[in-house]
């Protein structure tokens, strides 16, 4: 059964040994960030629930909820030991069920307390500084809902960094590649504020989809339903015409102040580097709805990989380009876009003819996510698991011919957050063809490849069973 | 109160913990927020990391993200 709230999922994680409660008093800084970083680096990294945060009374903080292969399997309602490659193919199968439209409910715990005056975000959430040189206290995992002011049937749910600046004032960072930037541009062209609702602490598939690069016209709630296998539950915002996740702990409502920009940032991003300090948009908050206390504030540690951010941006980042490319090139087996939100992407595929790997690499660069994010692309044969770096490195070591298989594309569109860019938003792309050359290319002269012993699967199973029974 | 990041005199207290264990301050100029329980290098402008200090020059160089688009000519401004 899919989960309807963060709390339900935390219970599941606890039952599976994937949640660690921290009952001792911790300092908001630096304890939460350090523990969250350590959790994602631990084998089978657990979620952490901080139950006693200095100065925050009964407020709780949940970290690393998506932060391991096991937690990612469990949020998909799969056995905890399901490996990434199998999870990827299961996600692909579920994406194909799209759309499963959301159902609207009339009541939910997120409406238990409705606050429309004397708003105070510092009181409502146990805030903390995620990294030392961040410009303030950020909500790094909240999901923002907005609508296209011209075509209101187009609603978007996205995960953007949010900086708490005052009791009732927050900054929101939107990139030109984000759907909300289209809504904002239209609102600003018409000199109108843009209404937003920001859902904090959600059931885990909501966060997964909010950080997935869907197409502009695709509805995130219908994708949440497709992945869950049953409809997402939504409830109407108090003001405006927005659908918010019914399972959220807390929802912040307000409007983006049009045609004004305010100092925002920096923030330690998924690249492992701090963003710059820019002037960006602010939201004037006019409403908060929430569960009764105690609130669980779920946040995301971002910083030097490997962090929870790399898990939540992992498999779903590869599924969308996989589907888009599979239509033209059915030879594609899997795409692993786990490295810095796809800056590094590995494609595995059967080779149709010589040079085909280059075709696939360049096709990735014309998918919506691929236009900006991928910086180096490795293409491997279908016998290589792209989620197994030992196999990928072997393929590069023995199948890649630098003089023939390296493609460099200078001055291409790039991620504005890439610290190597000398011009923000412009980068050089690299394709490494680590496939065995096939006709009409010249085949490898270096002998015959050694087969995997066919009985290996039997013995893998035997070894696992015998170790368990020891 | 002086902001440790931009050194302006426009900072003020915005919140205090229920048990009094810390206070939060906000700079009205650069929106920096900090907590009284954080280390000295966050709270003290003389110790704040120079790579992240905001000078007048850096304020002037900040780009608008996203850029503010031109108003549409076919629709009069609402205010």
Rg over alpha carbons of chain A: 23 Å
Strand content range of chain B: 15-25%
**Which consecutive residue ranges of chain A, at least 5 long each, have pLDDT under 50?**
none
Most extensive chain-chain interface: A-B, 45 and 41 residues
Task: Give the CATH architecture of the largest domain in chain A.
Answer: Roll
Total beta strand runs of chain A: 22
Q: What's the overall average pLDDT of chain A, rounded?
A: 96
- Helical amount of chain B: 10-25%
Main sheet attributes: strand count, strand direction, barrel closure of chain B: 3 strands, antiparallel
Helix count from the secondary structure assignment of chain B: 2
> What's the shape of chain A?
globular
Which key features would you list for this structure?
heterodimer, A: 470 residues, alpha+beta, Pnp Oxidase, Chain A, UbiD C-terminal domain-like, ten-stranded antiparallel beta sheet, 22 strands, globular, B: 79 residues
Topology:
The complex is a heterodimer of chains A (470) and B (79).
Chain A: H1 6-15, E1 19-22, H2 31-41, E2 47-50, E3 60-63, H3 69-75, H4 84-95, E4 103-104, E5 113-115, H5 121-124, E6 137-139, E7 143-147, E8 155-159, E9 162-166, E10 169-172, H6 179-189, E11 194-200, H7 204-210, H8 220-228, E12 233-236, E13 243-245, E14 250-256, E15 262-264, E16 278-290, E17 296-298, H9 308-312, H10 315-326, E18 332-339, E19 344-349, H11 356-364, E20 376-381, H12 389-399, H13 402-405, E21 406-413, E22 426-433, H14 456-468
Parallel strand pairs in A: 1-2, 3-17, 4-12, 19-20, 20-22
Antiparallel strand pairs in A: 2-3, 5-16, 6-9, 7-8, 7-11, 9-10, 10-16, 11-14, 12-13, 14-16, 15-16, 18-19, 21-22
Helix pairs in contact in A: 4-10, 7-8
Chain B: E1 11-16, E2 23-27, E3 33-35, H1 40-43, H2 56-61
Antiparallel strand pairs in B: 1-2, 2-3
Describe the protein's architecture and organization.
The complex is a heterodimer of chains A (470) and B (79). Chain A has 470 residues and is α+β, with helices and mostly antiparallel strands. In chain A, 27% of the residues lie in helices and 24% in strands. Chain A has 14 helices and 22 strands. In chain A, the strands form 4 sheets. In chain A, strands 5, 6, 7, 8, 9, 10, 11, 14, 15 and 16 form a 10-stranded antiparallel sheet that branches. In chain A, strand 18 (332-339) and strand 19 form a beta hairpin. Chain A is globular and about 75 Å long. In chain B, 13% of the residues lie in helices and 18% in strands. Chain B has helices at residues 40-43, 56-61, and strands at residues 11-16, 23-27, 33-35. A 3-stranded antiparallel sheet of chain B has the order 1-2-3, with no helix packed on it. The interface between A and B is large, with 45 and 41 residues.
